[in-house]
C-alpha cells in the first residue's frame, strides 16, 4: 500500500479539455482546427458540423482531426451533441445571429469569427443569448493574443505617451475568383464586404491603441469602391475623439498585402507592419521611436527607433484558443462567471464599424458613435 | 618645351564654382552652409547677407565659412554683390516673394527654402521673375536628392505596380519655446504654419509617389489644431485622383518625430519611416513588400518584404547643392536653359497646399485642384 501514489487532490487534477465543435468547414476553420490541436490538452476537437456529413468527414480527414471526432450533417445536430462544450463558428456573417444565439441557448460557449454580426443590434442578440446562458463569448481576432500585442500595450504609456494620431491600413489583393465568388463580396452572405473583413482589424487596432475609448464620431472617406452588387471592396474612414485624438484607416481587397498600424503619441511612435498576421509564425517585430530628436544640424535622429522582436512557441491563434479554453474551464469546472472584457471589446468594434457604414450610406456625413 | 604639359583644352577645365550668397542667418542656413562646403568645388560660399553685418560675421565664424566670404549688412547689399551667382534664401515665407523676385531680377539663381510661398500666385511671381532672367529655380526639399529617393522611384513601377493608396505622416514635438516664438507659428511670418512646414513634405512625397500627377480634389481633415493666432499647428487632408487613387497625410508640431511614407499599389507596398531626414546621415533604409501572399493556412507572408539600405558619401543637402550647381554652371558657362522640372514640381506642391488650406478655410469642403 505504501508503494501506491496517493490520488491527487481534486484541485490538482489537470482541467479537462474544452471539447470544441467546429461549425462549418470554411477555409479559416482549417487554421482554427490546427490551433485547437496545438492548444491540446486545453482544447480538443470533439465534433465537426457541416451541411453534409460527407463534407464534415472530408474536413476531419484533411485536417488530421482525431478519429473520435463526431461528424454531424447539420449545424442543428452539432448543437445537439451533449459532448460539445463550445462551438467555433466561421459561417458567413449573415448566419451569425441565428447560429450563435442557438449555440448559446444550448449552453455552448461561443468563439465567433469576425465580423461578428451585420450590425450592433444583431450582435446584441448574440451577447444577450450568451449572457442568459452564462457562456463565454469571444471573437476570433487572433492578433489580440500574440505576446507581441501585450508587449506593445505595455510599452505604449511610457514610450509613446499620450496617443494622438493613429493610422491603420489593411489590404490584400484578391484574385478574380475571390472578387467574383468569395462570400466576402456577396451581399446576402457578408454584406459588410471589405469593411467587415479587413476594416474590422483596422478598427480593432485603433481601439486597442486608445485602450478601447470609443471615438465620438466618424467620417467615412469619400469614393469607396463597391462591386456591382453594391458590396464594399475598398473604403476607409477617419475617427475623432473628444480630446482631439484622431485615427484614419483604409482597407481594400484591391492592393498588395499590407497590415500597418502606426500609433503616434506625444512621446513616441509605434510602427508595426504585420500586426494581423506576423511575417513569420513564431516571431513578431515592431519598432518604437521614443523621444526622438533631430541630431545637431538636423542631420539624423537621436535616439534612433528601437527594434523589438517578440517570439512565441505557439502561433497566435493557438494562444487565442488556449485563452478561450481557460475561461471556459473556469466557468464549466470552477463556477466562474464569463469574462466580460471580450464581448465588450467586440461590441465597441462593431459599434464603430456600424458608424463607418452609416457614414458611407449617408454620403460621408459625420456620424456619432453611440455605445 | 617637350617637358611642359600642354594647356588643357577649354572644355576640359573644371567648371568654376557657383558662388553662393546666403541670404539670412536662419537656423536651417547653418545646415546649408555646411552643405555648400561639402559640395566644393562645385559650390563656394561667396557672401552672407543679414539684417546686420555683425550677424553675418557671427554666422560666418560659427559655420567655418572662408575668410574671403563677404559680409553684407542688408539683403539688398547681398543682391548687389556682383560676385554672387546664386542665392540661398531661408527667410520667413512671407518675405519670399519680395526677395526671391529681387534676386532673380538681379540675375541671381534662386535656391529657395520651403514652403516656397504663401500661395501659388506668389510663387508664380517668383517663377516668372526667374524665367524672365533665365536663372535656375529650385526649392530646398533635400530628400529629393538622396540616392534612396532615386532608388525607390526606380523600384516603384515593377515592385509596387499601379499606386492606389498613399499615406504620409510628418510630425515633430515642438517645445514650448518653439510653440511661442518660432517663425513657423507666427501669422505674419509663416502664415501656413505646420501645413507649410511639415505638410509641404507630405504633399511633395505624395506627388512624388504618383510621378507628379495632380489630384483632382482634396478634402482637409476636420478638427485641425490652431494656435491662438489662428496658425495651424496640426492638420491633414485626403487627396483624390480621377482614377480612384487616394492619399492621406497628417502633419503636426505636437507629436513625436515621425516621417512616414507608405505607398500601396496593386503589386506591392513601399515603407519608409525617415523619408525627410534619414536616421543616419550616410544611409537611407526602406522596405518593399512585393507580390505578398499569405502562407499556407495564413500563418505568415510569402515572400517577406525586402529591406534595402542606400548609402551616400555626401548628405542629401550637399547632393542638392551639387545638382543645383550643375544646372547653374550649365546656364552660366554653357549657355543651357534653366531646368524646368524643379519649378514645375514646386508649383504642383504649392497648388495642392493651397487647395488643402482652402478646404480648411471653407470648413473641410472638397476643393478642386486647379493647376
UniProtKB/TrEMBL annotation, chains A, B:
InterPro entries xref list: Gfo/Idh/MocA-like_OxRdtase_N, GFO_IDH_MocA-like_dom, NAD(P)-bd_dom_sf
Region forming the signal peptide: none
Pfam families: GFO_IDH_MocA, GFO_IDH_MocA_C3
Residue ranges of every copy of the Gfo/Idh/MocA-like oxidoreductase N-terminal domain listed in the record: 18-138
Gene Ontology MF terms: nucleotide binding
Domain called GFO/IDH/MocA-like oxidoreductase: residue spans: 159-270
Coiled coil: none
Top-rank taxon: Eukaryota
Family from the record: Belongs to the Gfo/Idh/MocA family.
Protein name listed in UniProt: Oxidoreductase
Organism expressing this protein natively: Triticum urartu
